[in-house]
Amino acid sequence: METTLLSICLGIGLSAACGFRVFVPLLVMSLASLSGHLSLTAGFQWIGTYPALLTFAVATALEVAGYYIPWVDHALDTVATPASIVAGTIATASIVTGMSPLLKWSLAIIAGGGIAGLVQTTTVVTRAASTATTGGIANPLFATIELGAATAVSFAALLAPVVLAVTLLLLFLIFGRKLLRRFRKTASSTAPALPIEPISSA
Question: Residue 167: how many CB atoms within 10 A of its CB?
């Protein structure tokens, strides 16, 4: 049970990192597996091979470089959003142990893919706001922050998966509450006023 919980936390952390950059967590996973610091489940040992390491390294370099090119970063977002969900699903499925295949893949799709997609959506919205307010000048800064976050979260998932998973859960709860309050405030301010009928005298 403890091993299963640990693997779930590890998968969730790596999936969150996939939301920042698709290939950075996969590259870290490949390096960790080749160095003996990460055990992959059956069917996913290919991640810890040298051909996969080379592929992830090239893909990471291209992905990172693309986000520093104006307007190309937005084009990458259209591809990266579904790709991050797939990568998050794979990251979780390749780590989680002690579950039936049905439960494992359900968890991988819902938790792994869902978290990766949520993080990726947040980065897309942030980049769109940056483009609208600065004309894209600040986008390289956000690209650097996202790259650093992807790298830091990937290694944090390997070193302290439980702490990272709890931290992510708290952040999502805080962000979700703020988003819900803003939505309610917007809805109440835009709601049409009910007409007041005059009181007729008897």
Answer: 15
Q: What is the pTM of this model?
A: 0.83
Domain boundaries, the chain: 2-173
Over residues 32-73, the pLDDT tens digits come to: 999 999 999 989 999 999 999 999 999 999 999 999 987 788
Alpha helices (H) in 22-113, listed in sequence order? 23-34, 50-66, 72-93, 101-107
- What pLDDT is attached to residue 173? 83
Q: How many CB atoms lie within 10 A of CB 28?
A: 23
Report the alpha-carbon distance of residue 63 to residue 85 in Å, rounded.
16
Q: Which helix (H) or strand (E) holds 1?
A: none
Rounded to whole angstroms, the Cα distance separating 181 from 193 reads 20
User: Which residues are CB-neighbours of 187 under 8 A, at least 6 positions away?
Assistant: none
